[in-house]
Amino acid sequence: MGFRAHACLFKDNETVGAVLQVFINGVMLGGIYGLISMGLTLTFGVMKIVNFAHGEFLMLGMYGAFWLFYFLGLSPYLSILVVVPVMFLFGLLIQRGLIQRLIDATGITQIFVTVGLSMVLQNAVLYMWSADYRGVKIPIGTMSLRIGDITISLSRLIVFLATLAIVIFLLLFLKKTSLGKAMRATSQNWRAAWLMGVNVRKIYLIAFAMGSALAGLAGCMIIPIFSVFPSVGVNFVLITFVVVVLGGMGSIPGAFLAGIIVGLIETFSGFLLAPSLGPMVVFVFFVLILLFKPSGLVGRSRI
Amino acid sequence: MKSPKNSVIYISGAVIFLFLLLLPFGISNDFYQDILVTVFLFAGLGVAWNIIGGFAGQFSLGHAGFFGIGAYTSTLLYFNFGLSPWIGMIAGGVLAAIVSMLVFYPCFKLRGIFFAMSTMAFAQVLNILAVYWTGLTKGSVGLLIPFTPGWKEFIFQDKAVFALVAFGYMVITFGVCHFVKNSKLGSYLVALRENEEAAQSLGVNTTWCKLQAMMVSAFFTAIGGTFYAQYVQFIDPDSLFPSVMSIRFALLAIIGGIGTVAGPVIGSFVLTPLDVFLRGWLGGSYAGLGFFFYGCILIAVVLVWPQGIFKLLQDKVELYIRKRSSEKSETRDVPAGRPGRVIKHAAAGRECILEIKDLCKNFGGLAAIKDVDFSVHRREILGLIGPNGAGKTTLFHLITGFIPPDSGEIHFKGDNITGLQPPFRICKKGMSRTFQLVKPFLNITVSENVAVGAYCHVNSISQAKRKAEEVIEFVGLGRYSDFLSSSLTLSNRKRLELARALATEPELLLLDETMAGLNPKEIDEMIALLRNISERGVTLIIIEHVMRAIMALSDRVVVLHHGEKITEGTSAEVSKDQRVIQAYLGGSYLHVEPA
Question: A212, B331, B445, B521: which has the fewest Cβ within 10 Å?
Answer without folding.
Answer: B331
